[in-house]
Design brief:
Layout lengths: L1 H14 L2 H7 L5 H11 L3 H12 L19 H10 L13 H18 L4 H10 L1 H9 L16 H21 L4
Helix pairs in contact: 3-6, 4-9, 6-7, 7-8, 7-9
Length: 180
């Protein structure tokens, strides 16, 4: 019994240690993420949580709907972002490359942050379901745009996405901000 309690205690210590949690919450492409987050004024921990939810850090990820890369950017959105950011050499296949995908995804989060005036649940809903859908939900009263009313979002995938990203966001902040 004493051995079992000691093992349980060690397991609890291990599960709460930063180095162990970092195994499940990595920070790849650190310099790329930090530089572009600073440039576009986006929280790096939110970006990490989005990447984790979107692709689990697999650069070649592609969704059923065709979203690509780490931040799962749709080809049409990638083309639009490239136009907005004046990238003349952009090709859709570049969305699989972190040096294109991450800055584009961060720019897009910054854009959505401005459009939704810093309302993170709305920003995340728009990242997942589209800006127009979120505006429609809020305008027609389907959703208030508030976190406590996230269950009123018509898409289960978007509700779950917001919950997952925000959970991961808080874990990232807890684990990596300790040293900052």
């Amino acid at each position: 019994m004493l051995v079992l309690l000691a093992l349980l205690f060690l397991l609890i210590l291990l599960a709460n240690s930063s180095w162990f949690i970092k195994l499940f919450y990595p920070f790849p492409h650190k310099e790329l993420i930090e530089n572009h987050c600073e440039e576009y004024n986006v929280d790096k921990y939110l970006v990490l949580a989005v990447i984790k939810a979107e692709s689990r850090f697999y650069t070649k990820a592609q969704s059923r709907s065709g979203a690509r890369g780490l931040m799962q950017i749709m080809p049409e959105t990638g083309i639009w972002i490239a136009e907005q950011t004046k990238q003349e050499d952009f090709a859709v296949d570049y969305l699989y490359q972190p040096e294109y995908n991450i800055p584009m995804g961060i720019w897009y989060l910054s854009y959505l942050d401005k459009m939704f005036q810093g309302n993170i649940p709305e920003v995340l809903a728009a990242y997942n379901a589209g800006e127009k859908k979120v505006r429609d939900w809020v305008q027609d009263g389907t959703w208030t745009g508030l976190l406590q009313d996230v269950d009123r979002i018509p898409y289960a995938e978007t509700r779950e996405y917001i919950d997952k990203v925000l959970f991961d966001y808080h874990v990232y902040k807890r684990v990596y901000k300790q040293r900052s």
